[in-house]
Automatic annotation (TrEMBL):
Disordered: annotated span: 343-366
SUPFAM superfamilies linked to this entry: alpha/beta-Hydrolases (SSF53474), SET domain (SSF82199)
InterPro entries, A to Z: AB_hydrolase_fold, Dienelactn_hydro, Dienelactone_hydrolase-like, SET_dom, SET_dom_sf
Protein name as catalogued: SET domain-containing protein
Name of a matching Pfam family: DLH
Amino acid sequence: MLSSDITRPSSARTAAIANDVEAERSSAEVLENFLGWLVANGVKGIGLEDSKVALFASEDGERGLLCEEPIAAGETVFEIPLRLALTDHPGDDESNQLLYEGAPWSVRLACKLLRHVAAGARSPWASYVQVLPSRVPAPLEVFGWEDIAGLRYPPAQEALHAADWLRADAFGACGPEATGGLGEEEFRWALSVVHSRTFANAAPGGGVGVRMLVPLVDMLNHGGDQADPRVRGLAGGAAPTDNVRWDLVAPGPGGGGWVMRVSATAPIAPGQELLLSYGERPNDDFFLHYGFVPRANPHDDAVLWPDLEAALEWHHQRFGAGRLSDEEAEPLYRAALEAGLAEQAEERRQRAGQAGPGPAPAQQEQDLPAEVLRQLNQVKPELVPVAFGPDRLPGFEIATGPATQPGVVLLQEWWGVTPLVKQQARLIADRGFRVLVPDLYKGTVGVDMEEAGHLMTSLDFHRAVAEVGQAVEHLRAAGCPKVGITGGCMGGALSFAAAQHVPGLSAAVPFYGTPAREMPWIEPTGAASGAASGAASLPLVPAPAVQVEKIRIPVQYHTGMLDPIRGFSDPKNAEEVVGRMRAAGCDVELHLYPATPHSFLNALTPEGVVFLDKWRYGVPPPEQVTLAFDRMIAFFDKHLKTQ
């Protein structure tokens, strides 16, 4: 614990920060108390007569640091002993004992902050806690589900969805000991503080070592690069507006501890604010985490098209359609797509040091330092939004190799396309498959079981199977020689339905879900002819009912021995369904997992374990989860990667 190393304020100051003090205390009093705490704990460069900087607070509540005496470039401005920082690292015994295994760093550090908030004046960091903003005006704290749904920039929307799921799952998994007994609103605030104010150092073996909330340094406002607004494009270059930097300094020969040193990168005149660059980030990152957008940010970017196929489609609509017939355009654009995908695959191979046919990597890349090459090798393709099929249906896609790698359609559970589903897609893609996740709920994600159940029962399953058909056609058109399908719960049942009704599939691996007799796809919701309502352009499903005995592709079914959903995914139901298939001569495998509950494949990631525990599914044995995933991959390798 760092507590014993922190000097508390005098008794008068201690009384001033007690929980029962008047709420109308001025900002100046809070800053004065904080300044006294800094000086008492050995901070150099502020709070003394010869100090060149001072704290300030504007009328609108903004705080920062101001220069009072001239500062030369390279001069040390102030130093903070790192024992004053609130830190998180893998060896933090307190967090390891109080929080669940696999808790993200942001959750661990937010909980540590909340424990000091709950301790009030008893916390050695009470003076620091008092100067933290009472509200972080960033979407990560202030946006609700309706606000997120209203965003018109998919990358930002996806980032906020993932953050909101993390927050909800993590709070449900954190006990009162971890959070100091504070509630979900305070937890959301602490996460926003952590995301907007944390520093980190590099670990010796690469990656991030220690995350830190550093008093005083985190009050420096942003001053990054700024483009000349009078010059359009990139020709004008960029000028830095920051004037300080931070460095970690090891103890000297005389002893002492580590310090964070803030020094000037340019001359600073009296009256100038000290500004620190928060990094070369795009505007949406500033907006999401800090609640502001820098002026004339030269590092901003935007995703114009989610993938190469969407870019080519735009080009065809804008230019090609007026000059070429469909028969002339199709082979030209298909060739352009294949060439582009091959080029992307070659770039990824070169990053991973696995260059295939073509020119060797440039000498400059070969001469890069080993650490830079190691980090380049960790760069992986990302899951991107796509619009697929004739009806431009929404989904997410990821490919890790050439266009000729096999494809897998991954179907959602009843919750929707959650961050956990996307994580599963990445894991499957890492094993050599192009993965497409159709978004059957069209962007909606259930926030609790009641809403998830409503979304599932409101789904037109007849249409959903037809949309799966368009997903398979999309993968085949992209170059996948064979396509498989998998999914869990609702996605498992739909995998059985697609295995019977969707042409072009070569294998199916459903998890804990079968097409029970009462499921709504038994009868289509459209006309008696079988057409799905509102889906005139969708291919018709050949038959409304699912008869597993008529499936003619290999199937591998998985469920847990502790799965409680009778008639849908319990072990008895699994044996009955697979028994009927075997009696009809189907090629089918059944795998039952001891001590394993429903929805167990979510436990492939730490976030999934938190999710299962929060919603009381039960946490499965890790070895059973790994075994099931490996069996699925081996099954797809056998049936999709062989001729």
